[in-house]
Design goal:
The chain is of the alpha/beta class and about 300 residues long. It has a single domain (about 10-300), classed as Alpha-Beta Barrel (TIM Barrel). It contains 10 helices and 11 strands. It has a 6-stranded parallel β-sheet with strand order 5-6-7-8-9-10. Strands 1-3-4 form a 3-stranded parallel β-sheet.
Length: about 300
């Protein structure tokens, strides 16, 4: 599900599963649309997305949640101008000390929160008609707080009603395992769960265990300083026949609301310009590279209920 509606799997192509066009870190209590100019965001981001399209990327998944700067009007305009498929999200982000949780996280049940996210999927976000294609949540290191637990319960309930995948910014492997336990307690298969920022967990045996269970292991801080470690992790999962469970992205961008001119915008080019050629030199086949860049995101973000 893109900002322009349904997409068939063969149209998805090479995909960046975790990037950002814009963020606003002021917090849920103070965030408002009048803190930025949509034209300015569009003009700033456009050349970076045009270059990405030239490099062979077809689908851009924007992981900015509501209350941190999600603006689907900007995303739709950028999609129309670049030809990129852009996917946005629903859900609430509870990492960073829960400063991005809206008031309803304090008062509503998991079922009531889920109803909000289901409504966005069925009827569109606000009055735009744009529908989310996945859920984006966030938690710090484990154990999860009560509200973080509630959000994961809400996501599992939402998945069973919509088929949207659950992507969770996760502080460490302890939190990831607790999230998986909550999700599967609702009868949802692990294949519906993306462990976001899995690279932050230093114990690679946990990556292996989670991928073996069916969880999508997302390595999404890719850049010059991380190439060697990411290549080793990919090789480790490949050797264990789990390359089909890996997602790879930069977690880059972005127009930073509150900074002059949006601050420093980091491009999305490294994977295509440098990392993929490095994988070829390391012995990865074209089929294996295609698995990571195209096949895995296509399967991970498919809209379908994954139920035990």
């Amino acid at each position: 599900m893109t900002v322009n509606g349904w997409l068939t799997p063969d149209q998805m192509g090479n995909t960046l599963p975790h990037e950002h066009v814009m963020v606003d870190f002021i917090g849920a209590a103070n965030i408002t649309p009048d803190r930025y100019n949509r034209d300015s965001v569009y003009i700033t981001a456009l050349p970076y997305l045009l270059r990405l399209k030239q490099l062979g990327c077809n689908t851009f998944i924007d992981c900015t949640p509501d209350y941190i700067g999600r603006d689907v009007q900007v995303l739709k305009r950028l999609s129309d101008a670049t030809g990129l498929n852009i996917i946005t999200n629903t859900g609430y982000y509870g990492a960073s000390g829960e400063k991005y949780y809206p008031d309803q996280m304090n008062t509503e049940t998991a079922e009531e929160l889920s109803a909000r996210w289901v409504n966005e999927f069925q009827n569109g976000i606000d009055s735009t008609g744009v529908r989310p294609g996945f859920m984006k949540l966030g938690s710090d290191r484990g154990p999860l707080t009560e509200k973080q637990q509630k959000s994961v319960h809400a996501a599992a309930i939402t998945h069973l009603k919509t088929g949207m995948t659950i992507a969770i910014h996760t502080g460490d492997g302890v939190a990831a395992q607790e999230e998986l336990d909550i999700i599967t307690s609702h009868g949802v298969l692990p294949e519906a769960f993306i462990w976001v920022h899995a690279q932050n967990e230093k114990d690679s045996t946990i990556h292996l265990a989670m991928a073996s269970n069916g969880v999508w292991v997302e390595l999404d801080g890719l850049g010059p300083g991380s190439s060697d470690r990411y290549r080793r992790l990919l090789m480790y999962l490949k050797d264990n026949k789990l390359l089909s469970k890996v997602l790879l992205s930069h977690d880059a961008g972005w127009y930073h609301v509150g900074e002059a001119g949006g601050g420093t915008f980091n491009d999305f080019n490294f994977l295509f310009e440098e990392f993929v050629p490095g994988l070829r030199q390391a012995g990865f086949s074209e089929e294996e590279i295609d698995t990571v860049l195209r096949v895995n995101p296509m399967n991970a973000f498919a809209i379908r209920v994954r139920k035990q």
